[in-house]
């Protein structure tokens, strides 16, 4: 019996240790690099000392004991690239069963085995914003991930310091899924705004009901009945209280401006617009009332509402004071975000700092993590990438990628197959063909089965 107690106690201690285990933190000294700090200019032939996952010192002729030293002479060191709109490492994207599904969480379906994480690291991407899809006017809660590929625990990927975020969507996606697909609101663009406004008003009523209940508890002799708990409305209340950042799928300028006005009506300022193809038309409003715009470099014309756009969009937004980032929304494009940023420089003549900000400090600001990542500064987390050439060169190739000072990718030590989990029956990864290659509408085929057949196979 005594031995059994000892064994049980040992398992309890082990369980506690595992529960409290820290994600890996590394130490490294990178020497003689051209350091592209993004926020504090470029530093030639400079060293960066990382201790326990934090940038400890930036300078020349630095020394350290008992840690790896990397000679980056002739190479470029920049902050880890941040993708503000991604679906990497997600096993599900759309909870397309209602116009509002704010209660669902992408954190519940993160897949640490996704080879896309490693491929993103090979493209210098250290953080991605793993988002719900665009089937709902108000979708699920997103999760900010650090690309610590190699773990078996989804929680090891979570950037726990990152604020909560949620996905909204305007335009054709929610109207097709719910209006034409299910015959319910919203069927029109104005219906999308009505759904959002009604959701906010219902959340205000829910918040008031709980406030009345809590006040009644303090009254002598009172025995109030609590309101029914509703996780969907709880989430909407948190949005109204400023505790959740909205990231909204959008294309048309009229809809963008309409949602800006709706958010102002409810006192909401924590909103970022994604894709924003017509953002250049409302750039001053985006600069004044929002946390910015996360755009495509040159994607458009893949469906009707995206026919009007321009490769100058990012530059126009930047020059108007909008916090602007360039996102991927694609498991392929995520590996080339430094090339995508370069397109904004090519068309809009942004300088190097402005251009690199599109994929580093600006997305960090949009995710509420700019005090921790997005630039090379002492005290920040050591998410870093070494390039063989300047990152905005067409010849640039990432050589090493670090997350919290731990090297997760090295081009000279790159195994043939980095998959942690290999399917015996699946020869190729699944390809989802629904208008375009990105995954915002993944998982909604069911809702279009009859509609699609009637629309595209008609005989008249």
SSE topology sketch:
Layout: H1 2-19, E1 28-36, E2 42-51, E3 54-59, E4 68-71, E5 76-79, E6 81-86, H2 115-122, E7 125-130, E8 138-141, E9 143-146, E10 164-169, H3 172-182, H4 189-217, H5 231-240, E11 244-250, H6 253-265, E12 271-275, H7 283-289, E13 293-295, H8 313-319, E14 324-326, H9 337-348, H10 352-357, H11 361-366, E15 384-387, E16 398-403, E17 406-410, H12 449-456
Compact summary:
The chain has 460 residues and is an alpha/beta fold. It is built from twelve helices and 17 strands. Helix 4 (189-217) crosses helix 5 (231-240) and helix 8 (313-319) crosses helix 9 (337-348).
N to C succession of SSEs? HEEEEEEHEEEEHHHEHEHEHEHHHEEEH
Mean residue pLDDT: 91
The main pleated sheet reads as: 8 strands, mixed
> Structural class of the secondary structure composition?
alpha/beta
Strand content: 15-25%
- The stretches of 5 or more residues where confidence is low (pLDDT under 50) are 16-20, 431-436, 451-460
Total of helices: 12
- Name the helicity range: 25-40%
Cα-atom radius of gyration? 24 Å
Got a strand count?
A: 17
Shape: globular
Distance between the termini: 82 Å
